[in-house]
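User: Just a sanity check before I run the rest of the batch. Below are the structure tokens for the first item. I only need the designed sequence back.
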């Protein structure tokens, strides 16, 4: 005797709000861009400041890093979101309303990288040499705590772990590049 499974009634699934998802993706790109700008530029300028007290050298490295990082983040975000759009379109057809905009995500990432990166760059360039690195560390800790808190709240999770991860990761990056800068400065 063969038994046939009885049909199962599945609960109705919530309708996926693609417009909300698009806005959330834009915010995610912005927070990630700001965080990356803060850490990348802080690590770069702290490393250069450890090697040399030359403000022009620090400014050139910081400015080049700011432009390169912002363009890299925007390009990566554009490629990532474009791939996501392609997958959404192939899964749901061409008439999917409110697909995530790759250009919006790329723009958010670029602008937020620059804004985030300006924090350590401006601090390191406007602080006298003896306090340059400690002041940059302090400003970066505050900025990373803020981006960690915002990202956690946007994701609906507790801010504490996100803040700790951000601050520890950024602090480690600055400590390592500071050490490299000291070694290079001694060798030159």
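Assistant: Here's the designed sequence for the first item:
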């Amino acid at each position: 005797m063969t038994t046939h499974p009885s049909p199962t009634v599945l609960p109705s699934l919530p309708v996926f709000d693609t417009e909300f998802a698009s806005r959330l993706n834009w915010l995610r790109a912005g927070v990630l861009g700001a965080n990356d700008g803060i850490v990348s530029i802080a690590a770069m300028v702290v490393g250069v400041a450890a090697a040399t007290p030359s403000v022009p050298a620090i400014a050139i490295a910081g400015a080049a890093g700011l432009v390169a990082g912002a363009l890299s983040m925007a390009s990566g975000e554009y490629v990532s979101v474009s791939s996501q759009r392609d997958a959404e379109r192939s899964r749901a057809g061409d008439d999917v309303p409110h697909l995530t905009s790759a250009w919006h995500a790329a723009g958010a990432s670029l602008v937020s990288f620059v804004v985030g990166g300006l924090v350590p760059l401006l601090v390191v360039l406007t602080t006298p040499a003896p306090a340059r690195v400690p002041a940059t560390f302090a400003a970066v800790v505050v900025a990373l705590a803020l981006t960690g808190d915002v990202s956690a709240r946007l994701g609906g999770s507790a801010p504490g772990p996100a803040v700790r991860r951000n601050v520890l990761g950024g602090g480690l990056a600055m400590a390592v590049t500071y050490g490299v800068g000291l070694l290079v400065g001694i060798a030159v």
